[in-house]
Amino acid sequence: SGGADSMALLWSMYLLKDKWDIRLSAAHFNHHLRGAESDADEAFVRAFCQRYDIPLYVGHGYVTAGDKGLEAAAREARYAFFDTLDGIILTAHTADDNAETVLMHLIRGTGLKGLGGITPIRGKVIRPMLTVTRREVESFLAEWSIPHILDSSNETDDFLRNRIRHHVMPLLTAENPRIAENLSQMALRLRLDEEFLSQQTDSTAL
String of b and e for 58-83 (b: at least 16 CB within 10 Å)? Predict the structure, then answer.
């Protein structure tokens, strides 16, 4: 996306690609939700990848809300694009994102699976930053002087995730500065519990 989390992931992989002997490329999906701002995001990503000779794959879609809402529609379009790409896909979801997801599930009502938050691995998609906080991302970018862009839609309170990020998380962080890390770690442990119990249930059914 060109945002802080995505740029931190891309740059860390760029630093590690020779050590790990991997072929690195980037993927950007333009949802065309913010007009010229969306196109500017794409231009930013193109310029950065060109500067560091990182192959870039760009997808386009004109996303509408539909029955599931705008966020869900955008996510579906983005992952449909990812499915067309070869290799392993890394996404830059952080501990803060995971904590917000857990709280969203709690508000809407959930069971053990929902308390597991964001799936660390699903098919060819891997989310390696679920234990990394947004604060650590910002520190990393500042240390390497890596630019990033701000998505104006993240600044509004139009979406539940934004309201949790802007109003709920600051209150919880005031009580415990490590709340994002703690909730994310809890989610990862509960996901393992849920997977184990599901396996046991399947074995019993057999």
Answer: ebebebeeeeeebbebbeebbeebbe
How big is the CA angle at 133 (ends 65 and 114), to the nearest 5 degrees?
Answer: 50
Q: Quote the CA–CA distance of 42 and 87 in Å, as a whole number.
A: 22
| Inter-residue contact 50 to 28 (CB < 8 Å) | no
Q: Is 125 exposed, middle or buried (0-12, 13-18, 19+ CB in 10 A)?
A: middle
Question: What is the DSSP secondary-structure string of 22-49?
Answer: ----EEEEE--SSTHHHHHHHHHHHHHH
pLDDT in tens, the chain (206 residues): 899 999 999 999 999 999 999 999 999 999 888 889 999 999 999 999 999 999 999 999 887 776 677 888 888 899 999 999 999 999 999 999 999 999 999 999 999 889 999 999 999 999 999 999 999 999 999 999 999 998 887 888 888 999 999 999 999 999 999 999 999 999 999 998 888 887 877 666 55
Give the angle 48-54-57 at the CA atoms, nearest 5°. 90
**pTM above threshold 0.90:** no
Residue 140 C-alpha from the chain's centroid: 17
